[in-house]
């Protein structure tokens, strides 16, 4: 989910870019009618009974609007370490993670994403407060088909060495060419987008 604030692009449920999407003003923004219907429990996400959805929140003010996103019924939610409300107050973000209701944590896995150019040490104090870490393979988040940044391999190795049981996901630049190196470095979950959907044979 891209809000056009933290990243340049805007995706569902946002119908347009905005200068900000703060707190209670979030629901005053230009939002998709189906999104509003889901929040009002008049409908659900497509195929919600058969599909476990993962929400990758490339948005500003993700913490403030966390309760809104949980109403979509995701199996996983990912916060980005570079987002405005996360990066400005890492201790506050850690407290937020530790304060998430236990019943929510029972049904929703919480992940933290970090870009390849950010110091990996930033995320170390937060790892034990999350269910997994997502290492970004690209530096420009929210854009499909970006060139793979090999610095993410160092991030993966550092995380695997320090946290042997950690689930490490990788998003961005993942393809048939880069997957072997990512797995060898220690990744155990790969997120693939354009490498599948831009091919001539999606099913094959």
Description:
The chain has eight helices and six strands. It has helices spanning 33-39, 66-70, 84-87, 90-98, 102-107, 151-162, 179-185, 194-197, and strands at 54-57, 76-80, 109-114, 132-136, 167-171, 189-191. It has a six-stranded parallel β-sheet with strand order 1-2-3-4-5-6. Helix 2 (66-70) links the parallel strand 1 (54-57) and strand 2.
What is the strand and helix layout of this fold?
Blueprint: H1 33-39, E1 54-57, H2 66-70, E2 76-80, H3 84-87, H4 90-98, H5 102-107, E3 109-114, E4 132-136, H6 151-162, E5 167-171, H7 179-185, E6 189-191, H8 194-197
Parallel strand pairs: 1-2, 2-3, 3-4, 4-5, 5-6
Task: Using brief descriptors, characterize the structure shown.
204 residues, alpha/beta, 6-stranded parallel beta sheet, 8 helices, 6 strands
């Amino acid at each position: 989910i891209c809000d056009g604030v933290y990243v340049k692009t805007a995706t569902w449920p946002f119908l347009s870019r905005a200068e900000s999407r703060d707190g209670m003003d979030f629901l005053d923004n230009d939002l998709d009618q189906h999104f509003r219907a889901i929040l009002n429990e008049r409908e659900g996400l497509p195929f919600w009974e058969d599909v476990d959805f993962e929400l990758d929140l490339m948005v500003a003010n993700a913490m403030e609007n966390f309760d809104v996103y949980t109403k979509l019924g995701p199996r996983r939610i990912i916060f980005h370490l570079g987002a405005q409300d996360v990066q400005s107050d890492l201790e506050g973000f850690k407290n937020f993670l530790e304060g998430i209701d236990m019943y929510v944590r029972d049904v929703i896995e919480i992940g933290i994403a970090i870009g390849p150019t950010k110091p990996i040490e930033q995320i170390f104090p937060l790892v034990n407060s999350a269910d997994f870490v997502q290492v970004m393979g690209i530096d420009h988040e929210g854009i499909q088909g970006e060139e793979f940044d090999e610095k993410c391999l160092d991030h993966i190795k550092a995380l695997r060495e320090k946290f042997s049981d950690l689930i490490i996901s990788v998003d961005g630049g993942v393809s048939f060419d880069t997957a072997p190196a990512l797995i060898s470095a220690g990744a155990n979950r790969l997120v693939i987008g354009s490498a599948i959907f831009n091919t001539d044979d999606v099913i094959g």
